[in-house]
Amino acid sequence: MNKFWCCLFLIFFGISSTHAQTIAKTWNFEAVEDSTQQEIFDVNPGTDFLKLENGTFEFSLKGEKLNKASGNYVFQNDVLVLFYDSPHDSIQNLRVQSLTDSTLTLLGKNVHYSLREQPQEVADVLPVETKKEM
């Protein structure tokens, strides 16, 4: 009977963890708007990004005159807290308004950040070729 419950638990855990969405990705900014949905400044999806990986982040948003920022982050209960190391020590609290597998919407102090997942490059997906000898 214990084996049955153990197997059932493992199956349930495996299914539920495969559908979990993760915030640890590289995100491209699509829009930065105020509370009235007016664009605060133009964004460049090619160069403006937020990279979240292993508890650290990198951030670049040219419209805010922020060429590069980095630090650590904590994500829990739809709250994303950024602890900046550079350019200066500060803390920014953001609420995750929506999170899907390809989109992320963050809400700061009367500012809405709309982001889209950066597509993976083919080189990141394909395995490295190896030399085969006979």
From TrEMBL:
Record flagged with keyword Oxidoreductase: no
Keywords: Signal
First and last residue of the signal peptide: 1-20
Keyword Thylakoid: no
Pfam families named among the record's database cross-references: Lipocalin_4
Transmembrane domains' residue ranges: none
Residues in Lipocalin-like domain copies: 23-106
InterPro entries xrefs: Lipocalin-like (IPR024311)
The protein's name: Na+ dependent nucleoside transporter
Organism annotation: Salinimicrobium catena
